[in-house]
Amino acid sequence: MKLIEFTHHFPDEKSCKSAFKSYRLKQGIICRICGGTSHYWKEYREQWECKSCKHRTTLKSGTVMHGSKLSFQYWFIAMHLITSTKKSFSAKEIQRQLGHNRCEPI
Fold this sequence. Notes:
By secondary structure, this protein is α+β, with helices and mostly antiparallel strands. The protein is built from 4 helices and 3 strands. The protein has a 3-stranded antiparallel β-sheet, with no helix packed on it.
């Protein structure tokens, strides 16, 4: 997908969250407490809740974004930059492209 197409598909945070939610649903949500696979979406909290044990799972939990305070749009842009280039893309270049001041290792 070219950059202009990317900006049309994901123009704001809401569209990125919606797309990521659908990706997570395709993979399936598994409760990390009881292992249950039956969940329902709590719209006002933007979390899934396990029907068995009532444990809540956020959109970012269990992913590379877990614990990140960065927006979904920021993550989507970074993923697009990494996957759309022919050559490798360094962390410093992503940092420069996104205007991020510092890069902390995990």
